[in-house]
Amino acid sequence: xxxxWNTLRMRxxxxxxxxxxxxxxxSSLVSAxxxxxxxxxxxxxxxxxxxxGSIHYPRSTPEMWPxxxxxxxxxxxxxxxxxVFWNGHEPSPGQYNFEGRYDLxxxxxxxxxxxxxxxxxIGPYICAEWNFGGFPVWxxxxxxxxxxxxxxxxxxxxxxxxxxxxxxxKSEKLFEPQGGPIIMxxxxxxxxxxxxxxxxxxxxxxxxxxxxAVGLNTGVPWIMCKQEDAPxxxxxxxxxxxxxxxxxxxxYKPKMWTENWTGWYTKFGGPVPYRPVEDxxxxxxxxxxxxxxxxxxxxxxxxxxxGRTAAGLFIATSYDYDAPIDEYGLLxxxxxxxxxxxxxxxxxxxxxxxxxxxxxSWPGKNLEVHVFNSKSGCAAFLANYDTVSPAKLTFQNMxxxxxxxxxxxxxxxxxxxxxxxxxxxxxxxxxMISVGGAFxxxxxxxxxxxxxxxxxxxxxxxxxxxxxxxDASDYxxxxxxxxxxxxxxxxKNGQDPVLTVMSAGHAVHVFINGQLSGIAYGSLENPKLxxxxxxxxxxxxxxxxxxxxxxxxxxxxVHYETWNAGVLGPVTLKGLNEGTRDLTKQKWSYKVGLRxxxxxxxxxxxxxxxxxxxxxxxxKKQPLTWYKATFNAPEGNDPLALDMNSMGKGQxxxxxxxxxxxxxxxxxxxxxxxxxxxxxxxxxKCLSNCGEASQRWYHVPRSWVKPSGNLLxxxxxxxxxxxxxxxxxxxx
Length: 732
Ligand SMILES: *[C@@H]1O[C@H](CO)[C@@H](O)[C@H](O)[C@H]1NC(C)=O
Ligand SMILES: *[C@@H]1O[C@H](CO)[C@@H](O)[C@H](O)[C@H]1NC(C)=O
Ligand SMILES: CC(=O)N[C@H]1CO[C@H](CO)[C@@H](O)[C@@H]1O
Prior knowledge:
This protein folds into four domains: 50-333, Alpha-Beta Barrel (TIM Barrel), CATH 3.20.20; 347-427; 431-444 and 600-731, Jelly Rolls (Sandwich); 447-593, Galactose-binding domain-like (Jelly Rolls, Sandwich). The chain is 20% helix and 29% strand. It contains 13 helices and 40 strands. The structure holds 2-acetamido-2-deoxy-beta-D-glucopyranose (3 copies). Residues 1-28 form the signal peptide.
């Protein structure tokens, strides 16, 4: 009996245990989940108005992440949005890197610890002004591949990486139904315009991408941005400077704005764009008053394109973006503070916003009123769209003053707690304070190479640059010899022949018999370039050495993987007895990278492998020169920057870590007039720095600097004045 009773009791316990297990696992799949309806994303059954901001983990250091996330939280954000950077994670096929700045799991856990959510934009195409739009360069050389279309090899690679990331997130329990912070993911990125151009294969690729993503069962919604035909249940979302007029493709999807541009990126050769916070706040308020329930600031912290991660073409090393947190991790005021006030006002309205639709009325010219009414209360948005005149508006028998181009928020339909154009936050101007004095430089001359050097590849004709370098270096030497007969007329009359070099981009330095003869470079608008110049040739064999320099690979455009870089010709020599000699098809030798790169001169070990000179022998204004100096860290914790204004173009390293490309020699062209916040904004409206270097300051992360004995290495292509370089700290 006892035994039977025991068995029964055990069976009962088993049933209870099984029941508990089933209910807990099903609740973690269903009820404790993220879903959506036409009003909003719902988290654990509750509709939310979510304020999100983009912070890209490789654009800062892990040491900076907790501070950035705390400032984002203090600024009133609920969500951190980031892309996933495939080429950082899989530098060669099957070899993964999730360390340091690429420690995605650590980044997400930092966000989680701060109590914020994550919107994970896996892509894996990400655009993002990031090298090759996030794709690894090897992907281009997978046989038969075509990017971002209905192509077998591409889809297989995309699926493999997407699964890798999703599985990693699942095994770390980072999706919201698992108790993690990820409430949403993104597949593809701004694909709509590409699909529109390529038609049918684009459409079937979109369907496949959505199905593939949804099939990964993350338990959280997927979105596609700028993708009007996003298949169910994927949500289509808006990117832009304004999105109030946007409607999702189904009436049961929420209205979401995944990229609200807080500013714009800087390119070498361009001025530095900024966006007045009055207009930014105005655009957000307009979106919210028109049923919007998710807003993301792109960027909330832009950061730095360290190393060679900046995209082609010509994207600067700074990715500051005029974001609420500046490149260095400091608050940009009044932008950060004014947006925080905006977020507070919106949050006061949240209960009524998620439980009603607005009633819209137009009480006068350029005036618009949105009233939300539900049993949760009443909230009103009063808007004046006039770009010049303030307005008086009577609402519920009270008079409200509205500055031009502004929205007032009344969370109780009575008190105007916030107006987008009335900025009460003080503005701060960060100072750059010189620290540490002059560097004690040593220099090392990077010889220009010639065709008969060893370790060159010899081929007939001119070849595409990236096919040869595989982006292992920015630099590719194109080398050839030119025979000049002693009876050439120009040797007597002194009329030097003209060398013409046509290149697909992005910059070229022309050396004749080891001497720099000229420089040419393209621009973001036109990466192609033509060098034309008289060259000094002598009777006999002359060495023509062209150093072709890539400034990142393209990141956007239909089939941008097919775009070329490098000297593709023609290359001609005009003014010889025979007329013009075409050098295009003759024998050319190729050498990838610099000697200093192969010696790893940027590292402590590598830099001691060659003889450096100093003092009166120090190279100044000399092209292709390496410089090194050691320095001690300035006291305190203020962010650091190098002033590179005296230099031309090249790259910088601290203790072996690449700060990025410097190019202060490229001056900002454009017109930087005054700019009013009122009126429709675009990226050309508000500009600064015209006539000056597009980027003068280069961020040196504190965590890369030791208390003493830091190695600073600069490679200079054009020839600069190294004694002009100095270290600054940035303080408010
Ligand atoms: C808000 O959404 C509702 C339901 O879809 C719609 O009827 C209404 O026109 C929308 N209002 C605005 C201002 O977009
Ligand atoms: C790439 O380089 C190889 C030689 O390294 C050459 O055979 C091939 O034709 C090149 N392809 C293109 C597209 O330039
Ligand atoms: C959706 C949207 O507003 N898109 C715009 C974003 O900004 C770019 C550049 O100004 C425009 O070309 C897009 O139309």
